[in-house]
Design a protein that fits this description.
- The chain has about 240 residues and is mainly alpha-helical.
- The protein folds into two domains: about 15-165, Orthogonal Bundle (Helix Hairpins); about 175-240, no CATH class.
- The protein is built from four helices and two strands.
- It has helices at about 5-80, 85-170, 175-185, 210-220, and strands spanning about 190, 240.
- Strands 1-2 form a two-stranded parallel ribbon.
- Bound molecules: zinc ion.
- The site of zinc ion has 8 residues, from loops.
């Protein structure tokens, strides 16, 4: 294999490594989005539940108030029955009337608080349904993403092993170093020089001398002679035909 061929081989593995690394950055981000989507719906459900708990606590509290008022009326009636004077009797009646009025208000409040409950229940049911619907989908997508992460990690480890072999196969150390250095700035690193003498990386027309050197490399390759690095005059990418 010529130096150019081994470099193209190395670049092919590096292309796969780049894609896998990009994917491995993207997959956890996609998973986080799914989890966030579910937790938003979960928050809706929690709010609906706590609103319902508050409403039902309100009903209970009116109920307890009403019960206390009823007991008080009962006690006043008992005391009234043993009243000694007419005046005392009337004072009890007045108190009983006042508390009965309070009781009526409290009972009305309790009824109206009870009227609110079905709406809260139905909001919980809606939120629960939405949560259940989304949870199934989110769990499925997350499981698929986890599966793909594992797969991509295995493929990446494999590609990195392969890269070591491909890198060792580049017989010219100068070409290898040039490739590795340029890889941190340019991608792809080694590109074809078109028939009309244009760098396929940056699309700049090359001077005829560059085309001649690239063609010489082809001849040298065919003859088993060493090939030299021919770089684009603009972007520095290695050129080949
Ligand atoms: Zn170029």
């Amino acid at each position: 294999m010529t130096v150019v061929e081994t470099l193209i081989d190395l670049q092919e593995v590096d292309g796969r490594i780049r894609e896998l690394e990009h994917e491995l950055k993207d997959l956890p981000r996609r998973k986080a989005l799914e989890v966030a989507r579910l937790s938003a719906v979960n928050a809706e459900l929690s709010t609906a539940k706590s609103n319902q708990a508050f409403a039902s606590q309100r009903v209970k509290s009116f109920e307890a108030d009403a019960e206390a008022l009823r007991e008080k009326i009962q006690q006043l009636k008992l005391s009234q029955s043993s009243a000694q004077t007419n005046k005392e009797y009337q004072q009890y009646s007045l108190q009983i009337d006042l508390i009965s009025h309070d009781l009526e208000t409290t009972e009305n409040n309790q009824l109206s608080a009870m009227d609110d409950l079905p709406a809260h229940e139905s909001r919980i049911a809606d939120a629960q349904k939405k949560f259940d619907d989304i949870k199934g989908g989110v769990d499925e997508v997350c499981a698929e993403l986890d599966e793909r992460i594992k797969e991509a990690e295995a493929m990446l480890a494999e590609a990195k092993k392969e890269r070591e072999e491909k890198s060792a196969a580049v017989a010219d150390p100068r070409a290898r170093v040039y490739y590795e250095r340029l890889k941190t700035k340019r991608w792809p690193v080694i590109v074809p020089l078109t028939q009309s003498g244009v760098c396929d990386g940056c699309h700049l027309v090359q001077p005829p001398s560059v085309s001649q050197l690239v063609d010489l490399n082809v001849k040298n390759g065919e003859a088993g002679q060493p090939q030299r690095i021919v770089a684009c005059t603009m972007c520095g990418r290695m050129l080949y035909r």
